[in-house]
Design goal:
By secondary structure, the chain is α+β, with helices and mostly antiparallel strands. It has two domains: about 5-155, Ribosomal Protein S5, domain 2, CATH 3.30.230.10; about 165-275, GHMP kinase, C-terminal domain (Alpha-Beta Plaits, 2-Layer Sandwich), CATH 3.30.70.890. The protein is built from ten helices and eleven strands. The strands form two sheets. Strands 1, 2, 3, 4, 5, 6 and 8 form a seven-stranded mixed sheet that branches. It is globular and about 55 Å long.
């Protein structure tokens, strides 16, 4: 095998609590993360030498500034293989949108390289490598549902909730995660209990949605609140911002309800992505079987 094509899913945060600032400059967080069925398409191929990254979105860097490039570099160095890696990414997940698209692409590259380079390392070691690339990367190896603590790298897989649909609503601009954390005012946060979400029914999950970072992003961008109101008006059971934003998601218990809301909001000028939550890892067969 010299080529592998994988689908790299987006994620949402059902709960995101920022517990405080750490001595190392990072923030201590507690999050429940959920993978959803909106995918980038990542193809990894063995070549004679070097690393190349091509993407159909010009906003994505092609060289060492791309997290997927760095993932390939890590795996090549670990393997000692003289081959090179060519990465092709077709972007469907919005960029810098709170959905973890770049981190998910990097996780897909780690999984693909592990297979193609025959490094035969387990999920835990891949996740350790992922931590050096970005705090969200390990989640995509432990998902589709997980509790994240520490800087986001301490992961516990959770049972997947009952199936439900989400409508992801993106206003068409990007936000900087670093900027959001820098401007976080702990006096304005209302700590949610992320440990209580596992095992809840869909309606209960919808009522328990929480994101401390929304206090920053929604203040700077009032459209966040507008998108949430529009989702609730369109019969979402609950709505919340994902990650550092600006994407907002609404929860629906059926596909029909989700698609009806998509139709109702299509005149707003926002980018709309209806998707079902994932209840199984897209990489299960590759993480559990030897190359």
């Amino acid at each position: 095998m010299n080529e592998l094509a994988l689908r790299a899913p987006a994620k949402i945060n059902l709960c995101l609590s920022v517990l405080g600032k750490r001595p190392d400059g990072y923030h201590e967080v507690e999050m429940v993360m959920q993978a959803v069925g909106l995918y980038d398409e990542v193809t990894v191929r063995l070549i004679d030498s070097g690393i190349t990254v091509t993407c159909d979105n010009t906003a994505i860097p092609a060289g060492t500034g791309n997290i997927a490039y760095r993932a390939a570099r890590e795996m090549l160095d670990l393997s000692g293989n003289p081959s090179g890696i060519a990465i092709e990414i077709r972007k469907n997940i919005p960029v810098a949108a709170g959905l973890g698209g770049g981190s998910s692409d990097a996780a897909a590259v780690l999984v693909a390289c592990n297979r193609l380079l025959r490094t035969r390392i387990g999920r835990e070691q891949l996740a350790e490598i992922g931590t050096r690339l970005g705090m969200d990367v390990p989640f995509f190896l432990f998902g589709p549902t997980a509790l994240a603590k520490g800087r986001g790298e301490l992961l516990t897989s959770l049972p997947s909730p009952p199936k439900f649909w989400v409508l992801l609503v993106n206003p068409g601009f990007e936000t900087s995660t670093a900027w959001v954390y820098k401007n976080l005012n702990f006096g304005l946060t209302k700590k949610g209990d992320c440990t209580n979400i596992a095992g809840l029914k869909v309606s209960q999950i919808a009522r328990s949605l929480h994101n401390d970072l929304e206090t920053v992003t929604a203040t700077a961008h009032p459209v966040i609140a507008e998108m949430e109101r529009s989702l609730i008006d369109s019969r979402a059971l609950g709505a919340c911002m994902s990650g550092s934003g600006p994407t907002v998601f609404g929860i629906f218990d059926t596909e029909a309800a989700c698609r009806a809301a998509t139709q109702a909001l299509h005149t707003k000028g926002w980018h709309l992505y209806p998707a079902e939550i994932l209840t199984g890892s897209p990489y299960k067969e590759y993480l559990e079987s030897a190359p």
